[in-house]
């Protein structure tokens, strides 16, 4: 079966702010094997855990409780829609607001730096060239209005994600953690 390349069509792309009504969809996606392979592998998601983590995202902030303090900073979460179909999730935030889950510090990167996390949850939409188009559209509509650059740090073994980021204009900066994580960045078109 040949997969249709989505880039050959004219698509209506929308980004709807995350709402509680999306929680069952998030639960379904986060427990799907193609997402679970790269996103929260050690978490068995339940509706209670979804509400606990994403409840504040609906109110545009993230609460992170650390041993010595609690951080509450802006977090902007969206459901990505293509031609009226909810296909995935994307979020952005100031890259310096939260410690990196992998335990490293961001060094030598622009001071105006967003970080995004993204996945296509609907498996029928994976592998059709949609990821780069969604990311480019999202960055231009949302992120680059507030930040000069955007950062991602995919698992180096996640070649599909890295190719999608490259097609969306991200450049590899370096690998860290013995090559396990690839740093990638894209600058705003207004800075080029």
Concise synopsis of the structure shown:
The protein has 192 residues and is an alpha+beta fold. Helix content is 21%, strand content 30%. A hairpin with a 4-residue loop joins strand 8 and strand 9.
What structural keywords apply?
alpha+beta; two-stranded antiparallel sheet; 21% helix; 192 residues; seven-stranded mixed β-sheet; single chain
Structure description:
It is a single chain. This protein has a single domain, classed as 3-Layer(aba) Sandwich (Aminopeptidase). The chain has five helices and nine strands; from the N terminus they run E-H-H-H-E-E-E-E-E-H-E-H-E-E. The protein is of the alpha+beta class and 192 residues long. The mean pLDDT is 91. It has helices spanning 23-30, 33-36, 47-54, 130-141, 159-167; strands spanning 13-17, 61-65, 70-74, 76-82, 85-94, 113-120, 149-152, 171-176, 181-187. Helix 1 packs across helix 3. The protein has a seven-stranded mixed beta sheet, with helices on one face.
Strand residue percentage: 25-35%
* Name of the CATH architecture: 3-Layer(aba) Sandwich
- In what order do the strands lie side by side in the largest sheet? 1-4-5-6-7-9-8
Name the CATH class.
Answer: Alpha Beta
Rg result: 16 Å
How are the SSEs placed, and which strands pair?
Layout: E1 13-17, H1 23-30, H2 33-36, H3 47-54, E2 61-65, E3 70-74, E4 76-82, E5 85-94, E6 113-120, H4 130-141, E7 149-152, H5 159-167, E8 171-176, E9 181-187
Parallel strand pairs: 6-7
Antiparallel strand pairs: 1-4, 2-3, 4-5, 5-6, 7-9, 8-9
């Amino acid at each position: 079966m040949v997969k249709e390349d989505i880039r050959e069509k004219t698509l209506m792309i929308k980004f709807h702010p995350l709402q509680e009504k999306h929680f069952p969809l998030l639960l379904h996606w986060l427990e799907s094997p193609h997402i679970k392979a790269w996103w929260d592998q050690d978490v068995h998601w339940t509706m209670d855990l979804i509400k606990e983590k994403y409840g504040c995202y609906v109110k545009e902030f993230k609460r992170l409780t650390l041993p010595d303090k609690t951080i509450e900073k802006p977090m902007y979460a969206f459901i990505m829609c293509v031609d009226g179909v909810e296909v995935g999730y994307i979020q952005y935030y100031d890259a310096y607001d939260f410690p990196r889950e992998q335990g490293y510090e961001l060094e030598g990167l622009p001071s105006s730096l967003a970080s995004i996390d993204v996945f296509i949850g609907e498996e029928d939409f994976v592998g059709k060239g949609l990821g780069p188009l969604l990311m480019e559209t999202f960055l231009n509509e949302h992120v680059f209005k507030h930040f000069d650059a955007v950062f991602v740090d995919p698992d180096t073994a996640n070649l599909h994600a890295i190719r999608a980021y490259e097609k969306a204009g991200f450049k590899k900066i370096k690998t860290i953690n013995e090559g396990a994580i690839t740093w990638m960045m894209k600058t705003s078109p207004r800075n080029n």
